[in-house]
Amino acid sequence: MTVDLEWLERGNASQNWRTSPKRRHAPLKSRATSPQGELKASARCVPKVASGRREPQLVGLRHNASRKTLAEAMAAGPWQVATWRGTGTMLSVHHAAMQSAEMGRHFRACAWAKAAEDRARAAEWARRRREKGHLKVGGVDVLSEKHQDQAEGTELLAEPTRCPLCGAALTALTDFDCCDCMQRSITGPLEKDRSQEASVSKQTSLQAASRRASLARRMSLQVGRRQSADMDGLGVGRQASDRRKSNEKQKKPATLTRLQRLIQAKRMEFDALPEGKKERFRSAYDQAVAGQGGLGGQQLRQALADLGLAGRQNHEKEAVHEVVRESIAAGLVDFLEFVFQVVPKVEQKLVEAKSPKLLSLFNQLDVAMAGSLSCSDCIEALRRHADSFITVLDGDIMEQFWPIFVKELAQQHKVSKHSDETIDFANFQRLASEVEVRLFAFQGQMEERAARSAGLPPALEAAHFGEIAVMMRYFYRYEKHQRGLLGTQELVMALMDSGTLPTVGRLHMTTVSNFATRNNRLSVYRFPDFLEQVDSLRREEKSQREAAFKSWYTIHKWADDKAIAVTDMPQLIMDLSLVADSCRSVMDVRALVEDCHKSGAEFLQIDASTELCNRVVESARVAARRREALVAEQVKLSEEQVFDMRGCFSEMTHSGVIGPDDLHYLLVELFPDHEIDDAFVQELLDLALPSGYFHSSSKSASSSAPRAAKPSESNPSKSKAAQAQEDEAAAHRKVLEESILRFDGPLARNYTRPSYQF
């Protein structure tokens, strides 16, 4: 049985069954299965350019009837059975190939459109950068590295778009529809198949329209995406800025070492101190450091002295020096170490050193032995403590300072004379330390204020800093017209009150005679001139005392580098008769030495001894002038009368002391109409002055001879060599005394009343 399929190829609608017994053999190779046929069939899948030549019509497939049974056909594989697919199989395959090719072209067009879009966006961004510069937030470009790389890549691939079929250059995306090969690929390849491919063409046109719509929609979306990308870039920049700021806020500090943390804590602690205290620490440190990297031993003592922590007594100074030695053992002392280590340690040492003295003063006023003082007794104890370390020269400063301190004491500590509070010993110690610190701070303020008001040159201010306020009080004590000028007589009285000009002796006579000349009598002097006169007198007395000390060294055959013990200085000053006009005993001189010796050294060289002697003599003279002013006020004597009496007294003695014989001679000269004998003079001395205060030079000389002969009488068995040495020492001592007398001038008994005309 054979099946004729030609009617299917010819398009007949009726079936034509042929039931002929004759077998018809199928051709060996049909046109479709021949190589030429295969080439032609495959060539129909590829669109070709239309030509005038018509291709041959399709020849249907002719197959022999299958001889297999139904069971065998069902058991055969799909590759062994011919499946019926109906007419137009090759055309369907051709249409499927065209659709797949069109889909590939669509995908390529989308990729090319995306590339063109990226290139356009990169060009737009490059143009914006050239016009407006980079958009940076916090120093960082908003464009990320990824976007920059993409932009650079798209700029490198900026080439004209070409047709994938014919290779023609396309100027726009819409040129795909205008290309001839694309139009031929979309339409059917053969005119005879147009009727059969109408539905396919319609579908293809619909697909092309949908592609255009999707492309237009995509382009509109790309514009929106570009704008949103710009906004996103700004948003990213803002987010990066906010994130960076938050990171900076939350950024942890760098890890510090233990030493750095300690230094930072000390700086914070120093910043928390009161402003006045910080200023005092900084001023004392800056003045002492003098441009160096830290404080050495001498600079550290100077800074502590500026803070009032140098100590007054020898044991206090020794405690301070011990702390200084411990502090400089490891090197120079910096500012924080000075504030938080050295100063507290020195304060503690001074409190410990002053505790016995303060405890004794506390117990003196604690009569009831209650262990506490009333406020009035505490104020009195503090005043006594302040007077104990105030020198004679600082007495006037104490009178100005104390009312201010008592007022501050009542305001800050609620301690006043009318308060019912009690003060124990611990609080008394703190108040005593505060008194000392406040007093030294007040002295510094007074010095600075006096220097500014006087307009002193820097060199003169530095030379006299520490005594400017005291010298200014001596100067303005005799300034009556409030013009800052002194005459010659007032200048001499101010110099004597300051202790720099002696009231007797050769220097006194020379200075007074020099000021009494016609050229200097009408001169006026300002405060800087007064300080220059003070310096001149000090230089003159220093040279004279150096000569006296060298003579002492020569007599005792001492080397020039031999040091003198501080404990021997009072007796040495008395033996040299340097304070005979102002001090009564060695105890008075010892008190002045302890008051003036601030370095704390136990032994002094000749230069340091001379300097200490100068301070002691000036302090003794100031105390003597105050006592004289007090007596003159009691007996109602004016300043001019006191000045004339000092002139008369200086003519009678050059040592500052007269005996009963000198007083007898003076009374006879003053009162020639009265009979004055020795008994009257002695009775007058006993009534007016303590016994033994005055002594005659003749009596003292006569009484010294037997005392010198006592050693030889008490020890007759002494060798002649020892006796010779004692005689030689006595001779040298006599020469020294004579040199001192010549230094002051001979005792003028036959004198005339001086006629000073200032």
UniProtKB/TrEMBL annotation:
State where composition is biased (Low complexity): 205-222, 698-714
Q: What is this protein called?
A: GA20OX1 protein
Which residues does the annotated region (Disordered) include?
13-42, 191-256, 698-731
Organism this protein belongs to: Symbiodinium necroappetens
Gene (name only): GA20OX1
Show the ranges annotated as biased composition (Basic and acidic residues).
Answer: 240-251
